[in-house]
């Protein structure tokens, strides 16, 4: 799995990131803490507003559903008590998606708790909710890393599919997603805690346990990070270490780039 991350591509945002993975391209912008309207004000902590903008057309119920998942996740990551009575705004613009992905289509609704078990209508031909979610989560985390907002932790997430034969597929293609009986998005914090567990389709608890083990292995292992002259960072999974090393190396690469003026390079 290869990911490309560019920190701070936008000049007029407090923090931003461009994130490309598994055919999805997301540009995330974070502004805050900023003034909040009185009706949205929270006395003891900051309010978080997440906006997902589709690649084409106007956002609908599907985008609202994804926004609620991202907002709940970020509330566990950002130290919201550090900025009471303010607003932290996160805008996630979908730039590109796999050809067979319905990134701007209507939502196939499901209930949302810590684990969502929903019916998948085979007539739909594909899952519509979850394939985009890991890219939204990761782009928002990287955008937060480029701000001065205090965070409790970082997080990484992955998409896992269960095929009709019971095979566990990590970061499935659009074709594999269509043929899957269930899709799962799991996200783990840098402290090893499970922060996100969203599922669609029909599956057994035994399958879910296999999905959990596979996702934990992927999310908690290291990435090899390469940064080019333009400041883009390519991350490729390796078999050793923790994924948190990728975040550290990404920030280190950005810091080195920002300090070039001191070194005269």
Structure notes:
The chain has 265 residues and is of the alpha+beta class. It contains 6 helices and 11 strands. The strands form 2 sheets. It has a 7-stranded mixed β-sheet, with helices on one face. α1 crosses α2. The chain is globular. The model is unreliable at 104-125, 222-229 and 237-242 (pLDDT under 50).
Nearest-integer average pLDDT: 82
Beta-strand residue percentage: 25-35%
Total strand segments: 11
Q: Low-confidence stretches at least 5 residues in length (pLDDT < 50)?
A: 104-125, 222-229, 237-242
Net shape: globular
Q: How many strands, what sense, and barrel or not for the largest sheet?
A: 7 strands, mixed
Distance between the termini: 32 Å
How are helices and strands ordered from N to C?
A: EEEEHEHEEHEEHEEHH
Instruction: Going across the biggest sheet, name each strand in turn.
Output: 4-5-3-2-1-11-10
What Rg do the Cα atoms give? 18 Å
By DSSP (H or I, 4+ residues per run), the number of helices equals: 6
Helix content: 25-40%
Overall structural class, as computed from helix and strand content, comes to alpha+beta
Task: Please describe the structure with a list of short key phrases separated by commas or semicolons.
265 residues; alpha+beta; 7-stranded mixed β-sheet; 4-stranded antiparallel β-sheet; 6 helices; globular
């Amino acid at each position: 799995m290869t990911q490309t991350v560019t920190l701070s591509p936008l000049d007029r945002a407090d923090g931003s990131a461009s994130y490309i993975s598994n055919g999805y391209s997301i540009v995330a912008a974070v502004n805050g803490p900023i003034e909040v309207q009185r009706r949205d004000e929270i006395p003891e902590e900051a309010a978080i507003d997440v906006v997902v903008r589709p690649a084409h057309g106007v956002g609908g119920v599907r985008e609202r559903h994804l926004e609620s998942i991202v907002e709940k996740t970020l509330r566990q990551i950002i130290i919201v008590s550090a900025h009471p009575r303010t607003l932290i705004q996160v805008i996630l613009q979908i730039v590109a998606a796999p050809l067979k992905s319905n990134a701007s289509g209507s939502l196939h609704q499901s209930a949302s708790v810590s684990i969502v078990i929903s019916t998948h209508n085979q007539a739909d031909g594909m899952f519509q909710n979850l394939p985009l979610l890991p890219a939204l989560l990761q782009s928002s985390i990287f955008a937060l890393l480029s701000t001065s907002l205090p965070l409790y932790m970082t997080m990484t997430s992955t998409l896992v599919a269960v095929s009709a034969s019971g095979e566990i597929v990590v970061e499935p293609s659009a074709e594999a997603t269509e043929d899957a009986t269930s899709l799962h998005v799991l996200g783990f914090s840098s402290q090893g805690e499970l922060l996100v567990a969203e599922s669609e389709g029909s599956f057994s608890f035994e399958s879910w346990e296999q999905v959990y083990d596979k996702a934990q292995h992927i999310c908690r292992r290291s990435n090899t990070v390469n940064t080019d002259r333009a400041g883009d960072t390519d991350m490729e999974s390796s078999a050793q270490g923790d994924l948190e090393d990728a975040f550290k190396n990404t920030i280190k690469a950005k810091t080195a780039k920002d300090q070039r003026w001191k070194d005269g390079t």
